[in-house]
From TrEMBL:
Organism this protein belongs to: Ambispora leptoticha
Pfam families: Inositol_P (PF00459)
PANTHER family, sorted: 3'(2'),5'-BISPHOSPHATE NUCLEOTIDASE, PHOSPHATASE
Name of protein: 3'(2'),5'-bisphosphate nucleotidase
GO MF, any single term: 3'(2'),5'-bisphosphate nucleotidase activity
Binding positions for Mg(2+) per the UniProt entry: 70, 126, 128-129, 273
Amino acid sequence: MSVLALERSTAINAVLQASKVCQAVFRNLADAKAITKKDKTPITVADYSAQAVINTILGKTFPNDPIVGEEDTDELRGDERKPLREKVLELTNSILDVPLDENKLLSAIDRGTHPGGIKGRMWTLDPIDGTKGFLRGEQYAVCLALIIDGQVELGVMGCPNLPFDLKNKESERGCLFVAVKGQGAFQRKFSSSDELPIHFANISSPSEATFCESVEAGHSSHDDAAKIAALLEISKPPFRVDSQCKYCCISRGDANIYLRLPTNVQYIENIWDHASGSLLVNESGGTISDLYGKALDFSLGRKLKANTGIVASHPNIHSQVLDAIQQVIKKENINN
Ligand SMILES: Nc1ncnc2c1ncn2[C@@H]1O[C@H](COP(=O)(O)O)[C@@H](O)[C@H]1OP(=O)(O)O
Ligand SMILES: [Mg+2]
Ligand SMILES: [Mg+2]
Ligand SMILES: [Mg+2]
């Protein structure tokens, strides 16, 4: 049996089950009223339920593994939230073999409150990455990774709305991506367990590249990306797509560069937003770093405290992309 085989199959099953939760809500998006969390970002019944499903499945096979998950139950408790809680419970129990009661539901979600750190095994989970994309009816991803002693060893991403072949409009939607350190990166359809290896597209000059960025200009600076693209003589328009689907797209050759350029110095990236994607990039032949060329450090708690922004690209062009980023950042620092 290959290394982490049980973790791999359990994570794939968990992500597929959580993706079913998201797809059910997505089919009736008008009913999926979002509430706003303390950090002013939206959350829906699907985010809570997907976290409950994954944490329950992981808890059965790996009862001692802690989970660093995005969501907690702070805003799901109290009389005022009873109707939302009941919806989350109903949705969760429509997927799980053994139904949960309300207390078990809340404690399943709160298994995700681990603080992270450098020691031992831990999972990190984003039950819906790109909740804004989900609410717009566009792209989103269910993202799960296993971190051991600060290193990402396994990453699984479910993209329920992503076409298997982006160039073919009729292509089936629903792709799952999986990578284990040292074992390569793969894509499969939700509807079939056949896995196909994926690779970064070969590229020799940044000028040939298509770059990915957020749809939301508040998450990544479109202005800075345009300046960087101009310096690199990139002529193709940006490929804007929500969520960690960007990592999946570059890893299978749909685009060549992923830029995540801070819009606000106070924002520090979360580990669950980049753990699975960073391994997918590395295992499909890409390079990933922060804007200063520093490796992403997943060992410092729930956030990437030592890193600023993200850039992923083919190793042939990574240093040129970093140089262009430095030029734009330096200019801004001088002007501010
Ligand atoms: N101010 C922000 N800056 C950068 N990323 C953000 C910000 N607010 C939320 N996010 C996160 O951005 C990611 C999706 O954005 P994008 O589609 O731009 O890549 C998500 O991880 C989202 O969290 P969430 O998981 O809650 O959706
Ligand atoms: Mg969120
Ligand atoms: Mg996220
Ligand atoms: Mg999320």
